[in-house]
Amino acid sequence: MDTAYLIETIIKVVVILLIFSALAGIGTYFERKILAFMQRRLGPMYVGPYGLLQVAADGVKLFTKEDIVPTNVVAPIFKIAPVITAATAFMAAAAIPFFPQFTIFGYTVHPIVADVNIGILYILGMMAVGLYGPMLGGMASANKFSLLSAARTAAVFISYEVVSGLAILAPIMMVGSLSLVDFNNYQVGGISHWIVWSQPVAFILFWISAFAETGRTPFHLIANDHEIIDGFGTEYSGMRWGLFFIGEYANMFFISFVIPLIFLGGFGDGSFLGAMGLLAKVAFFFFFFLWTRAAWPDVRPDQLMWLCWKVLMPIAVINVVITGFVMMF
Amino acid sequence: MKMEAFNDRNVADNGYFLVDIEDYPTDGWGKFKRVVKRSFRGELFVGLWVVMREMIRFDIHTVQYPQEKMPIGPRYRAVHQMKRLWESDTERCIGCGLCEKICISDCIRIDTKIDENSRKEVSEYTINLGRCIFCGYCAEVCPELAITHGGEYENASDQREHFILYEDMLTPIDTMKAGKQLEFEGFGSITPHEDERVKKTPLAY
């Protein structure tokens, strides 16, 4: 391992950390604005022009708030839980190719931290480890609502990892690799080569389970404000709560990268246009997270379990079997 | 709409009808059919379209409050005002004390004295806004249309017992000189077309 590689990797890590931490903040701005417009409101308007600096105000508030560790909580676990959420979200980003490779000052940059040959498996695994954030946080808080939320987290994550894993199995069988770069190269021929045309069912299933794994609205029961206050986040304040928040939004962005990379051609042939196309797809998937939040109601936990085990999982299994038969003959 | 629509209590043949709701399926096949029907009827997309339509239409209903204010009705009963006479710019209040008498929350205190011209003069007049329930009786009872309600509803105070003095309520003299005093249209005021409705006092019995 030479020094140049080491420096390059460190720079990439820092850039991804900075960009996506900032994007998590800006994401909250877009969420507030878009939800407001869909509900005929204006959203944040006072801090900065059109409320653009609201993110900064929130940041100042989060950073300067007192770090409260309430009585009766299991302090070490309570303190480490938000870090798990944020850290695993960013660790999952290591195997995501954000852009096609490009040359700058005669030096070829691969905008992926580690092109490991088990990329998708690593990303799904890392997002699965993210379940320990809400679960440990909820269990360590001396609060019944947090405990409920922890139980729901465990149920939802474990169930929907089955769906997302099985759904993604069919494309993996077609591509024959777990690296997202290989996925991208498989679909390099243009729109007609996108995996979504041959695997529409897997695409829908993976999309649905993405909502469950990020805990977004149709499946927002992990931290359902109107039932269980803020779930695992009830006892948290200040930057520890902020870490949960950054983790959630970073997760949304990363899963919005993963879905187009697997199903919708990713960055295509690696041209500038292709890179912009990937950004547009990511923007659409992120927007869809906000869109559904404005439009759809939440489902009950038992309905969520019903949907997972009795509907989505059988469909995913059938999809895998059919894909296998088609590939065999 | 005619009053008939409100007075007719016979709802049976008034356009009411039972919504056609199917019985819930009890057997497995029926439940399965219901799931399939609900999944492919596209109701979720209706919801998505509705919010998207509202975003594109961009018909924002927010009132940015401190900068923008909703108009309030002329009969709105907020903090009291003391009016001046249009003819002489002097105060309308004659110190009769009726408002103090009728006030049901007992928040008006009035004190009068005889001034150097041997006329009754108001020396003290306070309203405890912490007690006032803004019922409008004082404005209604006032024979001179002197005490009325105004439209000032922003009453922040550092204590509950927020008093308002006569001088605060009185129309400023420069406003009066500019002819900008607004008449109250609520309780106790003269109704429109009052002139036409006035009858001669029957003196010859």
Provide a descriptive summary of the structure in words.
The complex is a heterodimer of chains A (329) and B (205). Chain A has helices at 3-38, 54-64, 75-92, 119-129, 132-140, 144-175, 180-186, 195-198, 200-214, 225-228, 238-263, 272-295, 301-328, and strands at 102-104, 107-109. Chain A is globular and about 60 Å long. Chain A has one domain. Chain A is an all-alpha fold and 329 residues long. Chain A contains 13 helices and two strands, in the order H-H-H-E-E-H-H-H-H-H-H-H-H-H-H. In chain A, helix 7 (180-186) packs parallel to helix 11 (238-263). In chain A, a hairpin with a 2-residue loop joins strand 1 and strand 2. Chain A has a two-stranded antiparallel sheet. The model of chain A has no long low-confidence stretch (mean pLDDT 86). By secondary structure, chain B is an alpha+beta fold. Chain B has two domains: 4-57, no CATH class; 80-189, Alpha-Beta Plaits (2-Layer Sandwich), CATH 3.30.70. Chain B is 27% helix and 12% strand. Chain B is built from eight helices and five strands; from the N terminus they run H-H-H-E-H-E-E-H-E-E-H-H-H. The chains are: A mainly alpha (329), B alpha+beta (205). The A-B interface holds A 34, 37-42, 45, 291-292, 294-296, 311 and B 35, 44, 47-48, 50-52, 54-55, 58-62, 64.
